[in-house]
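Hey all, quick one. A colleague (J.T.) asked me to put the (6S)-5,6,7,8-tetrahydrofolate job into the tracker so the inputs and the structure tokens live in one place instead of scattered across chat threads. No bug as far as I know, just bookkeeping. Sequence used:
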Amino acid sequence: MKKIPIIKSRRLRSTPYTDRIESNGVSGYTVYNHMLLPVSFKSLESDYQHLKKFVQVWDVAAERQVEISGKDSAKLVQLMTCRDLSKSKIGKCYYSPLIDDKGFLVNDPIINKLAEDKWWLSIADSDVIFFAKGLAAGNKFEVDIKEPNVNILAVQGPLSDDLMAKLFGEEIKQLKFFNFKYFDFKGKKYFIARSGWSKQGGFEVYVEDNAAGQDLFDYLFELGKEFNVRAGCPNLIERIESALLSYGSDFDNRDNPFEANFDKFVNLDSEVNFLGKERLKKIKQVGIKRKLMGIKINHNKIDMYCEKTLFDDNNNIVGYVRSATYSPTFNQVIGIAMINKPYWYSKDQFKIEIDEKIFVGTVCDLPFI
Ligand code: THG
């Protein structure tokens, strides 16, 4: 794969932390919600080993917020997701697939309930704001929809509780998974959730004031020295090993939530009204013909910038790889693939071409074990 730089511009938005992560050695970006999202620092593998042992500060401002407020906000938020939010509580975060009228996935945000009439959809990489505005206009809902100036700093890794307690006090250790609260530091309030796009534990600080966020970034580094803090970012190896899905890579607007294994977030039996509900009932009744599964290949390298096809011995299509990486823990290539129904049995074999050579791999269940 040729290494060709992407040129920054105002349209390809920087974040309040861009200067800081560049001083801390960012070595690659991707574009996410029209914004820079770092993908590597020292190297993918070095970042991975460090994340699993210490603590990292991540610039994940590209996880943008779509703020929906006003009298009809709860109705609009529910209309967009197949997860039943009728019993949702203020102070909680809900991982919720967004669905269109045809039953296809639009995004997989974390929905934060700030008040009965104020919600933040912390979105993956698709333009949810226009979908929301279109629905609001078509339904004549009384809502305000905007992208507020919120720039998330994530603190991830096994030592994140210790580091965060040093700044915000021991109380922060009591915060439960997928709950948020406001915590004080140097006279300023920060919205903090126990969440983050890794399975190494940690927090996300939804920063509403750029200067306060930049200050926080500097203090996290200052006070984090004893915990061997480093700047980091969502790590491809860690997130695939943890089977954290990525909209645009693992699934997109051509897939339905059952195919993406979101069954537990699809509530078809309650009274709530959402787009695509009847479609999803039909799909569930008929059954799906493909779904996301794990794959393992005995090799030490794979580049993924387009879908790769998997074949059986008779050259029938087994499925398509959506994302993959070499995993130092499994000492082989692991990946997430859309697998056709005849091949859903763990240990089913396939052939795959990597760098013009044919390798044999096996299908496996998610999460990887
Ligand atoms: N944090 C915030 N916003 C985000 C992400 C995030 N927006 C973009 C993207 N990530 C959205 N996608 C996900 C995918 C997985 C999870 C969170 C956001 C996640 N999943 C857990 C799991 O799969 O184990 C928990 C899900 C549950 O059981 O509720 O954390 O990371 N702010």
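Adding what we noticed when we looked at it: The two ends are 30 Å apart (CA to CA). The CA atoms of residues 84 and 267 lie 6 Å apart.
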